[in-house]
Amino acid sequence: MTDSDADIREIIFDTLRNALPRPVALTEQTHIVDDLGLDSVAVMDFVMEIEDRLDLSVPLDKIAEIETLGDLLTVLRDLKAHV
Amino acid sequence: MTLLAKYAALAAQYARLEEAGTNPFNVAFEAVLSPTEAIISGRTTLLLGTNNYLGLTYDPSVIAKSMEATELSGTGTTGSRIANGSYQGHRGLEQALADFYGRKHGMVYSTGYQANLGILSALAGKDDHLILDADSHASIYDGARLGHAQVTRFRHNSPDDLANRLRRLKDVPGDKIIVVEGIYSMLGDTAPLREFAAVKREYGAYLVVDEAHSLGVLGATGRGLAEAAGVEADVDFIVGTFSKSLGGVGGFCVADIDGFDILRVVSRPYMFTASLPPGVIAATLEALHQLRLRPGLRHQLNANSRRLYDGLARLGFTVGPEPSPVVSTIMPDPDTAFAFWARLLEMGLYTNVSLPPATPKGLALLRSSVSAAHSPAQLDHAIALFADAGRELGLIPRPSQPAWGEPDFAGAK
Questions:
Q1: Domain B8-47+295-405 is of which CATH architecture?
Q2: Using DSSP, how many helices (H) and how many strands (E) does chain A show?
Q3: How many residue pairs bridge chain A and chain B with CB atoms within 8 Å of each other?
Q4: Are the Cβ atoms of A45 and B361 closer than 8 angstroms?
């Protein structure tokens, strides 16, 4: 598979848009807890959707380090590169 | 104040509940009268939220054994098994648990929480992989964090997602350890264990099942879901607790694996904490004996679970996916859960509130748990109080005609 950065970013944004109750402007600087109000389980659930779409698993310690959507993008890109 | 400032938002919510006098997270029993009754705020209250599944907390033989052991061996062990030695009772209970499960080995922990911490952190080393059901109890998540393995979670009760995760790890070195629960404590649903066992076999993984809420509840002899599903041979480790069906406190693990005893010196929650006092050990041993001796308790429990589950579903409450001793009704939001809980307590019925992130899918739950010790009349009374409070709060429809003419909407999920 050849998911580029832009593809992965679009998958993240698209998944979030479907998961959030109302439209929110999303950027790589968007803070997942502060800006989107997701709790720890909601974050893990939303990452699960992305895992399915990219066919990879994100270890929980990596998820715990993620604060912004940009952080998530970096983690997913690194994992994808090692698949 | 700055040290705790990070909890400001939570503290404000907590203070609001305290001020309203409706804090389900700070209930005090003035006196406990029996497995099913206590005094709260000066009122005799029916207990429907204690996880006392077999009602053995006041069993005369359990109490007698506990008192006898306390008089004989003292109130506490004042130390850990590793540093300060085991009492005869510790070994005896481990043997009794191994015998009950038909396994070679048993190990006792001081709480069920520590059993998961101790087993998961010790089984999975740095290069191994723990794969947890997403709805796992906090003790499973914390046990995973205490160790150094890679941890991923799969979709709750989904054998397909579990298989996906194992497939992605197929060429990655290290052992794979799957962790699931028998009955999930929030919605009372059971795991599709036969399907999980098949996936486990396909990928050569290990399987840990936490039977905390299913010991004494499921299976032909009360061993839990693995017994009920007929897959005990596929379950490598069973973890459980003494604090529910066995009416005490403590946790355990049983297994057949060779070399099991090494876990005693690599499992920190076993090594660095005081062992259970003689009175607790003796009570648990006797409770296990009663559980084996009186299958009628389990049958009564399951009949009681069905009675409450069907009763609440018939009223129009949204209940969990299957009847079990955990009967949760899904509330529209946390505030409604608090109001409903407070109204039930005022009417003399004690239940629990469960909120995200402890609950799946952001659900606010009014959680009940049933005991074999509940009489049918007590359960019918509880259902009637649910009906009154539920109608008052507009959670369920008011009967427009006599109840026996109502359509049956027990199919609500």
A1: Alpha-Beta Complex (3.90)
A2: 4, 0
A3: 39
A4: yes
